[in-house]
Amino acid sequence: MPEALRLVFAIAGKDIRAELRSRTALLSAVVFAALVLVVFNFARDPTALSATDLAPSVLWVTFALAAMVALNRAFTVEREHGALDGLLLAPVPRGALFGGKLLANLAFVGTVEAVTLPLFVLFFNVDLAAALPGIIGVTALATIGFVSVGTLFSAMAVRTRFAELMLPVLLLPFMVPPLIGAVQVTARLLADRPLSEMLGWLRLLALYDIVFVTLCTMAFSAVVDE
Amino acid sequence: MTAAAAAHAIARRGLTVSLVALAGLAAVYVLALGYTPVEARQGMAQKIFYLHVPAAWCALMAFSLVGLASGLYLWLHDPRLDRFAASSAEVGVAFSAVMLTTGPIWAKPIWGTWWTWDARLTLTLFLFFLFVGYLALRASVHDPAERARFSAVVGILGMLLVPFIHLSVYLFRTLHPQPVVLKPSAPSLPPEMLRTLLISMAVFTLLYVGLVTLRYGLAMAEDARDEAADAA
Known about the structure:
A: mainly alpha
């Protein structure tokens, strides 16, 4: 395995181990996502809008809010006891450091999403069985893009005043393209539309991932290095 | 000349240019109301065109220049680029506020609705949010070098976000008029309207230059004050 990749996995492994030992953040994020779903249930009028029509937007707004909560955590844990300084002193290229944090965040957000999806089926009575592989695919595609921007911004936000407020204000505009794409593709998947109707959106999501993962990896050193 | 005196001189120059531009703006009002013909279908409501379009032009120019200055800053690390980006972002937010208020006022009588989720409206709204966030970020970082690096990163990412937002909202049907000036065939406006529009755009651009210069001078004065405070 190339050295850089080994470092990426070492850093991601460190974050995931630390998370699994306490589990508080993960549990809170999952409970938060479940609560958002419950709130949504009361915000809709079932006689006016069928669950299937509303489902894609409910699912994605929940994912987006849960991801925001999860991303706030990514660098706040590093701030305590000067952990980030230790990490920056380690002989690790900044790109690999970013890759590791990104991977850990993806694992974290992915877990929250994996728990939210069955809850969503349960609460909203949507039949996902046929569309499930597609939904998992589009979720991965959209999540990689905004989590990568979120990882970069959370490294910045922890060094500002009002960190918990700064991250959503900066990140939400960047979540818009992946969210619109993901909602559109999810709606078509649920309606059992042919792949050709989603191809444009899938291309946009993939392009977003490529551009922003590359850019955030390059910009990371400008954020953490004095 | 001390740094503070230099800052003062730049701010004064900016103020002069802004005042000239404001006088020009008064002339634009006179031209728009007195010289240009009343549009046949839209009536007087169309007059807002002479403010809305130049304001939008300045806002987009301001934000593009923020993106450009941000990219150059990460390369050259020149504090002047950061100061310029900050000034341009502030003035850009002001112009987008003009654009986002004159737009709905014009849209209500003509389209019958204050707001529509058309591609261009959504894009400019998000640009506005993006740069309000940019300014909020600047306000919440104390260390000048760190502030410059953070805002440069957001500036660059913001510039690259624009095509993505545009692509993703483009699929909604657009109510917004197609370009009337910069397009392959000749401009489709009557010459009086076109002349007034171009004069107004020049005046707004001058106002942008004046305000940015003024703001740049103020930023220089702030930096000089902070340095003096740190030295003491």
